[in-house]
Design brief:
Blueprint (H helix, E strand, L loop, with lengths): L2 E7 L2 E8 L1 E6 L2 E6 L5 E5 L2 E7 L3 E7 L2 E6 L2 E6 L1
Parallel strand pairs: 1-9
Antiparallel strand pairs: 1-2, 3-4, 3-6, 5-8, 6-7, 8-9
């Protein structure tokens, strides 16, 4: 079961897709977001965002920090 992710930088939309899970470098350690995750806003440290798709495909995106919000099966990530 998938959910929507959008990654946005000051340059605009960097990535948008339906994913099965996303691992984020949150302030207190890495967290993994799945469909139906509780609503959450968190700051992000420098690290790697890993988006996983069906068929065990992955996309890794290096970031230097930012913020994320998960709400109603939509994950929005604002990156530096």
């Amino acid at each position: 079961m998938s959910f929507e992710i959008k990654i946005v930088s000051k340059n605009g939309l960097e990535f948008e897709s339906e994913v099965d899970s996303v691992t984020l470098p949150a302030k207190d350690g890495y967290i993994t977001v799945l469909r139906s995750h509780a609503s959450l806003i968190t700051s992000l440290n420098a690290g790697t965002i890993t988006a996983r798709f069906s068929g065990q495909k992955e996309k890794n995106i290096e970031i230097t920090g930012g913020f994320s919000e998960i709400k109603e099966n939509k994950l929005t990530v604002l990156i530096d």
